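Tokens for chain A. Residues wanted.
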């Protein structure tokens, strides 16, 4: 028997304009209506039609090929078409709500404002208002009565710039979610946020939002006895404070910690930890403090405020270390003032830093904890008494504590962004138009 000859496959033939129409159509169902497979459509999208010379048929529902190619290659033209589609959809939805044009127009302010907000980034606010035949005065009146999505109270940030934006409130909430700063005082958290430029408002406003949003559960104002201001130096290395505090290990063994701090900068100059309270540890801390003295000069005199403890009694008067004269002054004996600044530093290091961790097992483990605590105390945490600076910035970098240092940052607030009221879109639109004209 003779077999039937193999039949050649029959392929469909398509017009070039039809291919362009299907390939670049935004309607995904158009190809299915004309029985064009997805793989064929994908192949057409990759085809370079610029080498074909053709024209549309008179009765075909296609655009002119050359115009279509220019439209496809023009990004600004496609954006204009999207504006046209959105505005036509708005007109159609308004008329569907109410056949009476004026009544439907006035009752659809939110829809119209949303369309203008999208269109003004392409054609500018002036032309967007012209498409709806709305005056600028009426547009501003509508905006005034519209809730602003970037404002806490809903009022316009441009018309009322002194209010706090929602973005600043969100930054404030994230600030209190930091686990590394939860043990800080509120004023230190505030100054750290100013340094990180998370917001720009005063300390009073910060306290108000913290209380209103319940960000600090321990924000309880307790009336304290107002004591007179203690000893305050007017420069670094004029007055030092030395004190000793006790930390217990997990086996209830005492560790004695000797500190020397600078009065003006609150900088911890030296520290030592040992199992015994001895004069040698106090003397070693003084030697280290003198070696770190940033303004050391021959014959310089430094007042050392200490208490009447046994570790301080062997200190001679005066004590000369590396040509620096140290004058020992016993608090509440030679002077009426106490050694409260050193006691405050001990308290902050003990309760603000060390108590966050379990008791150390030995002095080696404690030294590591103490090293991290002093590093954060000196170099990381801003201090309210020196107006947001760190002790290291004041002592080693020469910063002078100034209560007005952040005043300009608070006064010069960044321009708020409101997605409805942003008129900078007009400038952006003009730039896009110029670039499009130059390309054509």
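Reply:
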């Amino acid at each position: 028997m003779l077999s039937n000859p193999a039949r050649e496959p029959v392929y469909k033939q398509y017009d070039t304009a039809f291919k362009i129409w299907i390939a670049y159509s935004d309607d995904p169902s158009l190809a299915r209506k004309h029985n064009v497979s997805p793989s064929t459509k994908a192949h057409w999208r990759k085809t370079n039609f610029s080498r074909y010379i053709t024209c549309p048929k008179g009765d075909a529902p296609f655009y002119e090929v050359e115009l279509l190619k220019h439209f496809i290659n023009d990004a600004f033209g496609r954006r204009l078409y999207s504006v046209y589609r959105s505005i036509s959809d708005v007109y159609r939805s308004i008329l569907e709500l109410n056949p009476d044009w004026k009544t439907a127009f006035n009752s659809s302010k939110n829809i119209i404002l949303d369309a203008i907000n999208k269109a003004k980034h392409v054609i500018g606010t002036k032309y967007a208002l012209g498409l709806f035949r709305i005056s600028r005065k009426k547009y501003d009146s509508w905006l005034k009565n519209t809730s602003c999505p970037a404002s806490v109270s809903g009022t316009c940030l441009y018309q009322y710039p002194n209010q706090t934006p929602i973005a600043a409130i969100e930054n404030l909430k994230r600030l209190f979610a930091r686990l590394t700063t939860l043990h800080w005082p509120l004023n230190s958290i505030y100054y750290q946020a100013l340094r990180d430029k998370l917001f720009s408002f005063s300390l009073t406003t910060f306290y108000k939002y913290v209380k209103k949003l319940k960000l600090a559960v321990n924000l309880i104002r307790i009336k304290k006895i107002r004591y007179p201001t203690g000893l305050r130096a007017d420069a670094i290395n004029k007055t030092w404070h030395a004190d000793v505090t006790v930390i217990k290990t997990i086996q209830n063994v005492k560790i004695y910690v000797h500190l020397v701090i600078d009065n003006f900068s609150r900088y911890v100059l030296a520290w030592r930890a040992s199992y015994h309270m001895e004069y040698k540890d106090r003397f070693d801390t003084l030697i280290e403090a003198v070696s770190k003295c940033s303004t050391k000069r021959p014959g310089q005199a430094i007042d050392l405020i200490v208490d009447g403890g046994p570790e301080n009694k062997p200190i001679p008067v005066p004590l000369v270390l590396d040509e620096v004269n140290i004058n020992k002054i016993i608090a509440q004996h030679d002077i009426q003032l106490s050694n409260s600044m050193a006691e405050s530093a001990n308290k902050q290091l003990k309760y603000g830093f060390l108590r966050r961790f379990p008791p150390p097992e030995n002095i080696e483990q404690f030294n590591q904890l103490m090293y991290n605590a002093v590093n954060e105390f000196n170099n990381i945490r801003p201090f309210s008494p020196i107006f947001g600076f760190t002790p290291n910035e004041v002592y080693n970098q020469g910063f002078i504590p100034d209560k007005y240092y952040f005043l300009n940052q608070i006064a010069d607030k960044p321009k708020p962004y409101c997605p409805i009221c942003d008129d900078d879109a007009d400038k952006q639109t003009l730039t896009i138009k110029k670039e499009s004209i130059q390309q054509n």
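The longest strand covers residues 239-248. The first helix runs from residue 16 to 23.
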